[in-house]
Amino acid sequence: MGLKEDGKFEIACPCCDTKLVVDAETGAILSEERPKKDHEKTFDQALTEVRQAKEKADKDFHRHMERTRHEKDILAKKFEEAMKKAEKDKDTPPPPRPFEFD
What we know:
Layout: E1 2-3, E2 8-12, E3 19-23, E4 29-33, H1 43-88
Antiparallel strand pairs: 1-2, 2-3, 3-4
């Protein structure tokens, strides 16, 4: 970071190495210069990355499907327990409603 003679700051971003020129008075960004990205991947490297991403997506999908299958069983068991509890508590009166106290 440095102050130039014409009242502008030159700042380099620590994350992406973008160089910004900022006006000292207004704080406005006057210009930016982003570093060039390296696009030197071969077709085989790109194809490998796509295949790996597809395999990961398939694994995630199957894992989620298994979890969903088990969730249905768990929810059915919870429903059965709630029905049993409701049958057992059938004779107890419901709690008073707040509007009945008027």
